[in-house]
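step: validate -> pass
step: tokenize input -> pass
step: predict -> running
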Amino acid sequence: MLIAKPTAALLIATLSSTVLFILLSSRPNLSPRPDSMARSFVLWLHGLGDSGPANEPIKTLFTSPEFRNAIWSFPSAPSNPVTCNYGAVMPSWFDIHEIPLTANSPKDESGLLKAVRNVHKMIDKEIAAGTNPKNVFVCGFSQGGALTLASALLYPQTLGGAAVFSGWLPFNSSIIQQIPPEAKRTPILWSHGIDDRTVLFESGQAGPPFLEQAGVSCEFKPYPGLDHSISNEELKHLESWIKTRLNSSS
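step: predict -> pass
step: emit ->
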């Protein structure tokens, strides 16, 4: 089953969002109970033309006890004109110049960095409320996945992880010099459908070599037969991936 995405009139494709998953963990060798789990936070950033509330059903698929006390956040992007949709105004974290997106597509780095600062404010607020940064997980689909990647790589602390679904590298190689040493220890999960015709599979394949050059760990998972969508298989793997990275201290 695929998670359906809403479409906008001028959208050529939906480019979905960043999930910040700050999850709760259990003590080693103990059955997890709500009172034994640390505070955790999951931030999901939606894609182009989408909205945060439209993505909220995703959290219902995370049924493991470790997620019982997880805080989920599904913010909505501001409305901005989007070049690839002929300047139409729609929810968009930053500008996208063309679709399909390739590894060499033009990049809106100034708009991206503005969006990154807003994501960092969300993370800062949750950490100030008592969440261990290692229990913060940022996740997103398509445009949100690209924003997830940038937000994790530029954050000044090590997070629990960042999950990119059908995303791309939204910046140039010069950004490597801006990645803090702590951010290089944040693990990255990158999932991409081989049949994606909106963000081409080659765009996803360009990610791991870039991250390796930057000294960042990345698990890349291709999904045969999957187009520009999120599958239940991807989300179940994400659930397991996050569970193994949860910390028991708040």
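step: describe -> The radius of gyration is 17 Å.
step: cleanup -> pass
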